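Folding Task

Wanted — backbone structure
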Amino acid sequence: MQQATEKTFLVVGASGATGRLLVGQLLDRGARVKALVRSPVKLPETLRDHPRLLLVHANLLELGAEDLDVLTRDCDAIASCLGHNLDWKGIWGPPYRLVTEATRRLCNSMNAQHREAPGRFVLMNSAGNSNCDLDEPLSLGHRLLIGLIRVAVPPHRDNELAADWLRTRFGDGSEQMQWCVVRPDTLIDENELSDYRLYPSPTRDALFDPGRTSRLNVARFMADLMTEPDTWTRWQGRMPVVYNQAVVA
């Protein structure tokens, strides 16, 4: 595992189930981490007391431009593990474009700064969202059901729009800003890291034949992207799909 000594990373959605695992992965690699949270107590105490962790208690969408610039200025990369709460208010209540607006604001802030190297943004998304730059075959049933989900479940559309904004705004990478959208399939909790596979496009139907991806493996891959230059070079400007190896046919 390559050490990320002297690197500083920002993780938003850091108190979520995957976000806090990513924070732990980055700290284990020697990085300095800024963790943006709305509820610090949701982070384990072992993380909250870590000397290389800076907790930023704020609502991202309520930060002004100057506060955003301070937040992103010295960051080598930003990772978003933001998502909507799985309750009535979280799914059908505002903010309807939490992930999209956070992605746009963070990238624009980072992109406006004069940097020696391009900024990097890693977005956790979903295998249920297609990469429109690739010919990802979908069955008629999948297309019809996704169309209904897109209308009935606002968080799904939010995730689609966030990924599409990165893809169309920056293409496969610009001199100021580079990106990667990580697409796990059905997320599960596991206590230990396991083998996983990466693919440019889904190898299973996320609706009718879903795979599984442990949150630990998602966090590890996102940390690899942020700390390992070879991994970033391979996947930047792309939307890799992550599966636990054991469930891939």
